[in-house]
């Protein structure tokens, strides 16, 4: 491993600590709300991943994942308060993000095909940064370019012809 690669390599111990802090925080929230669920922790790439599994209903996800996004931000703040470092951890509930990742990847691939066929740029609806990243990756895998435009929370992806 080169010196530059070592500087970019994620600190696994720090990510595991983030996951533990986040898991304790989320578990406390579940207890307060009297919601049954188990917590899984993992490290995926350069992020801690905390998943709530075994939860009944969609109250913790909300419409369009709004509640999940809010819980993730609160959890990141809880981690920041203890570590002093900005956290990029990802919170998931009942596999919502995995399902959403598959849907968005399919959308990105289909829109890329349409843009390739028509030769016209296509704008998509506003998305969260997580969602835009998945679409950008799918478009790039299809061999086209994309960019984000607009301001949060109305920022959206535009798929461009080659």
Task: Please provide a written account of the structure.
The mean pLDDT is 92. The protein is an alpha+beta fold and 162 residues long. It starts with a helix and ends with a strand. The longest helix is centred in the middle third of the chain and has 23 residues, at 96-118. It has a three-stranded mixed β-sheet with strand order 1-2-3. It is built from five helices and six strands; from the N terminus they run ααββαβαβαββ. The protein has helices at residues 3-8, 12-33, 66-83, 96-118, 129-141, and strands spanning 38-44, 47-53, 90-93, 122-123, 145-149, 156-160. α2 crosses α3 and α4 crosses α5 (129-141).
Give a quick rundown of the structure:
The protein is α+β, with helices and mostly antiparallel strands. It has helices at residues 3-8, 12-33, 66-83, 96-118, 129-141, and strands at 38-44, 47-53, 90-93, 122-123, 145-149, 156-160. Strand 1 (38-44) and strand 2 form a beta hairpin.
